[in-house]
């Protein structure tokens, strides 16, 4: 039982409810009253009970007290940090002014920020073609024939073969359309779906105009009068080994149905030399699975770094097919076979042209060596 003194002390100081400012250990908020212009009956002092039956006595307005926000109720604002320095027009020393001018001449609906409806940006295109121009004009020796068959405007579908373990062929086709056509055009390819899952590569491909290979995306591009690039062999085409470098594997038929549905002309092209640039002796599917790719090509020097060889790119006249794209499979397969035979002929033309160019190059080297050693040409030696 509690002592009498403690019970008396608890009765003298009963517990009370703590206010909010006491719980937060801050000052109590000051009262706030409206100014004289907005005083209503609620702001007036209520008369004593003895005067409620009679006429209440008018009371003047309460003195104006400015509104003060209690520290415990005031919102917490973020600290003011210095803004980072941003340039309105970022300038890159790696972008050639000539390439930037050609990017500006692309007939694409860029907005004020240099971005088109599909996410392609001028800045990424300028950087991409700065690298591709070095490969196109200095690292490789690229011979292009028949580029005049590519229309300057309007929808078209570039259909060709894969050559090499990586997409050298697609890069050179895109570069040829950008530098060889007037005005320049952007060939937009349908990238493999694993590219979208690869870190940085998916975003870089989208910013450069190369989108994921979906039928809906390809159809939208053609309806917007774009230049579409398709490889019907798919990933099977890049998996060809060195002895199979100039052959064709089975074509898919989706490109033909899409071309007939959208009434798009098909421009076949043949690419030769990619198998010599990356001579694939084996494909590591286990390593590709670890990296999120279908496979990883193995070359005699290990990694798939391309060698500086001569490449040949040959375009053909457009091919048009009438129909709605809903025909029987036998009809579609017949049209696909026609395109495949045309591409096979272009590959043979490119191989012959490459053979002659290499022979002429060897003769020129021999001529220069003999002239440097003896001071005369072959004809003079004879």
UniProtKB/TrEMBL annotation:
<feature type="domain" description="Phospholipid/glycerol acyltransferase">
    <location>
        <begin position="156"/>
        <end position="274"/>
    </location>
</feature>
<keyword id="KW-0012">Acyltransferase</keyword>
<dbReference type="Pfam" id="PF01553">
    <property type="entry name" value="Acyltransferase"/>
</dbReference>
<protein>
    <submittedName>
        <fullName>Acyltransferase family protein</fullName>
    </submittedName>
</protein>
<feature type="compositionally biased region" description="Basic residues">
    <location>
        <begin position="42"/>
        <end position="54"/>
    </location>
</feature>
<dbReference type="GO" id="GO:0016020">
    <property type="term" value="C:membrane"/>
</dbReference>
<keyword id="KW-0808">Transferase</keyword>
<feature type="region of interest" description="Disordered">
    <location>
        <begin position="37"/>
        <end position="60"/>
    </location>
</feature>
<feature type="region of interest" description="Disordered">
    <location>
        <begin position="358"/>
        <end position="382"/>
    </location>
</feature>
<feature type="compositionally biased region" description="Basic and acidic residues">
    <location>
        <begin position="367"/>
        <end position="382"/>
    </location>
</feature>
<dbReference type="InterPro" id="IPR002123">
    <property type="entry name" value="Plipid/glycerol_acylTrfase"/>
</dbReference>
<dbReference type="GO" id="GO:0016746">
    <property type="term" value="F:acyltransferase activity"/>
</dbReference>
């Amino acid at each position: 039982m509690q002592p009498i003194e403690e019970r008396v002390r608890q009765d003298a100081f009963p517990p009370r409810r703590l206010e909010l400012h006491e719980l937060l250990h801050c000052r109590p908020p000051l009262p706030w009253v409206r100014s004289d212009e907005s005083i209503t009956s609620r702001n007036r002092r209520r008369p004593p009970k003895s005067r409620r039956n009679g006429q209440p006595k008018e009371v003047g307005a309460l003195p104006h007290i400015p509104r003060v926000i209690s520290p415990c109720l005031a919102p917490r604002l973020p600290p003011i940090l210095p803004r980072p320095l941003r340039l309105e027009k970022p300038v890159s020393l790696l972008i050639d002014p000539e390439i930037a001018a050609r990017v500006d001449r692309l007939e694409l609906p860029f907005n004020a920020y240099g971005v088109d409806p599909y996410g392609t940006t001028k800045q990424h295109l300028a950087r991409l073609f700065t690298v591709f121009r070095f490969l196109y004009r200095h690292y490789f020796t690229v011979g292009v024939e028949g580029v005049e068959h590519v229309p300057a405007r309007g929808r078209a579908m570039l259909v060709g073969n894969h050559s090499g373990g990586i997409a050298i062929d697609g890069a050179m086709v895109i570069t040829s359309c950008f530098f060889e056509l007037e005005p320049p055009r952007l060939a937009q390819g349908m990238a493999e779906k694993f590219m979208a899952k690869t870190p940085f590569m998916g975003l870089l491909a989208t910013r450069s105009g190369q989108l994921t290979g979906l039928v809906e995306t390809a159809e939208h591009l053609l309806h917007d009068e774009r230049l579409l690039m398709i490889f019907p062999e798919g990933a099977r085409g890049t998996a060809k080994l060195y002895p199979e470098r100039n052959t064709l594997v089975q074509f898919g038929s989706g490109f033909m149905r899409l071309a007939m549905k959208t009434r798009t002309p098909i421009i076949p092209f043949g690419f030769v030399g990619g198998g010599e640039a990356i001579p694939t002796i084996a494909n590591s599917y286990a390593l590709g699975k670890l990296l999120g790719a279908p496979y990883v090509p193995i070359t005699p020097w290990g990694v798939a770094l391309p060698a500086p060889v001569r490449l040949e790119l040959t375009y053909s006249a457009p091919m048009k097919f009438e129909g709605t794209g809903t025909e029987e499979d036998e009809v579609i397969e017949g049209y696909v076979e026609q395109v495949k035979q045309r591409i096979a002929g272009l590959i043979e033309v490119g191989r012959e042209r490459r053979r002659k160019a290499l022979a002429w190059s060897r003769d020129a080297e021999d001529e220069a060596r003999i002239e440097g050693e003896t001071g005369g040409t072959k004809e003079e030696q004879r």
